[in-house]
Amino acid sequence: MGAKEELLSKLTIRDKSGATQRAHEMLIAHELKWKGPSNSETLLYFFKLDGKEIGVAAIRHGIFSFPATFWRPRASSLHQGLSKVASYMQVDTQPAISSSQYSAGQVRLAKATIDTIEDIIRSIIIPEAKRAGAKIV
Length: 137
Hints:
This protein has five helices and five strands; from the N terminus they run ααββββααβα. It has 137 residues and is α+β, with helices and mostly antiparallel strands. The two termini are 27 Å apart.
């Protein structure tokens, strides 16, 4: 088992709601690539374009995150997605500390949010990735 599989296993075992596994499965079903470096506690979901990795989603313990590099220029689409999530289920990214500084938005991964996160993946993340040049389904 590689580092990314070990991290996924660790995150899914800690998540009794099953939300982490469901979000992961949906992201890879759309053919996004993923990695979880051994020096990180974050799984990054990305596509490649012109030899660069473009991160569109990330998962860490209890958090579904929208990488800032991709989502800040797409703030209106991100806002549309986040508006579907109750404010108390969103995780503030300010002040920028640790990994939140790399996030344009964060949602708690929980039984109460997974259906909405799946909808955001389907209706916001995948279409925006395709518009940016991703060759995914």
